[in-house]
Structures are given as structure tokens and as C-alpha cells.
Amino acid sequence: MTVKVSKRAEKSFHSIKDFIKLKWGELVANAFEERVIDFLDLLENFPEIGTLEKIGDKRIYGFQLTKQTKVFYRIKGERIIIIVFLTLDKTQRKNLDEVRPSRHSAFAIPNPDKMDF
Questions:
Q1: Which residues contact 98 (CB under 8 A, 6 or more apart)?
Q2: What is the CATH number of the domain that holds 9?
Q3: Residue 8 lies inside a defined structural domain of this protein
């Protein structure tokens, strides 16, 4: 299977990494990135490693990447689509929005029906 990262997931990943870099430094941010890369490699071989989440009528999987970060993805044919990286810490979410202000938060789970994959 191949892994495809949505634009929203890419944006949320970079926002979280930027926050980690500001808060704890380059070394910790790079360790987070390595963990994401390791997870994506693992996901190619074990696509159902995550917990099946019930979001509408879609089969969305969630995987706890770190204590504060969860990744959501779906399987569509032979592709695994990373939907979003979500920070679970409310304080961190607020600080992330300050680091990367936007009209729409990159940390809400998007409606998979409205995403083009």
C-alpha cells in the first residue's frame, strides 16, 4: 500500500513541529519528525494498526503518535490517506494557533467527504 498525506495533514504536521521547535528546541522537533516517518513506514505494512474511529459513516483510523498527538487516516483501495495530525492538549492547541494563525484551525478533524484524495 502507498501512503498519501493530505494538504491539511501536512499543514497540521508542520504547525505541531514548529510549536515543538519553539517550545523544546530543534532536537526534540527532529525527534518528532523521525517518529512520524517511522510511523508512516510502519503504516505501509500494517495499515490497520490504528484504532477504528466511528466518524459518520466513514472508516477513519486513529493512532496515538505521542502523548499529545494523534494522527487520523483512512484506507481507500490500495492507498492510505493521512487526514490530519491532531494535538490533544488544549493549551498546546491554543499556542499552535498563535504560532500559525489562520481563519480555520488545522487541528479539527475535517469532514472526509469534502476532501479531495
A1: none
A2: 3.30.2310.20
A3: yes
